[in-house]
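Recap slide: DNA-binding transcriptional LysR family regulator, sequence and predicted structure.
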Amino acid sequence: MDKLGAMNAFAKVVALGSFAEAARALGSTRSAVSKTVMELEHGLGVRLLDRTTRRVGATEAGLAYYERCVDILARVEETDLQVASLQAEPRGVLKVNGPTSFGALYLGPAVADFMAAYPDLRIELTVTDRFIDPIEEGVDVTIRIAELADSSLIARKLAPARRVFVASPSYLESLGAPETPEDLGRRACLTYGHTTTLQRWRIVRDGEAVMVPVQSVLCSNNGDVLRSAAVNGRGVAFLPTFLVGPDIAAGRLQTVLDRFPQPELGVHALTASNRYLAAKTRAFVDFLAKRFGDEPEWDRFQRA
């Protein structure tokens, strides 16, 4: 038996004083409502209604039960409305995760502007370069810059993430700019990872990927460290434009090997599902997509 449905049917009968009127209000039949109330009485072991040919009225126990039913049904309706409002209006706590460097440079300022537009929201932003499972860690939106593998997560591309080879003007003046990917083997390279040994860069040339051995003089798992070293003339780095765009625009870095454009990674928003996506999550992802777009500010820096 649907207990809440039965309580609702009983409450309608008491309020309207008639099985027929209750059935009309519920979009049901008189016999179905009568059967439901009888099953409710049987389950409780108490007679709730006095039935005559002229009217239906609540017994003493029925009146007490009716008052509790009205209270419970009102609370259920209020809860439903509150949950539905979370789907309709951005509110509550929004949990966001993103990469360290991108989070500091672009995601943090975007979050601040988003908060101004939605003052009822509270935001928890964490940054890490570790790929997390948003479902397992209770995160609403995860921002990732990568070639995404197949998964159950819903991914939406927010913006392109181009990568370029860069070095400082002083470094290029002293050793010359590399003309081919193989020339990188004769240059000091600043590589991403955890060790300087056996470093290879995967470079696409004429549509085919080749693994080019490089001399890693500095290896770091933080792009800001590599960018700083490149600006200070320590070698060639292969970095996303969101990190080095302003340096290119200011002349602190120059791009090399421009004849060999590399595949984009893409800035993606990952969510658990978009079927019943909460309004706060949907609004935030839409906001980021509009803010970054197909021509993000880091690439506008690059072409300035």
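The mean pLDDT is 87.
DSSP finds ten helices and 14 strands in the chain.
(End of recap.)
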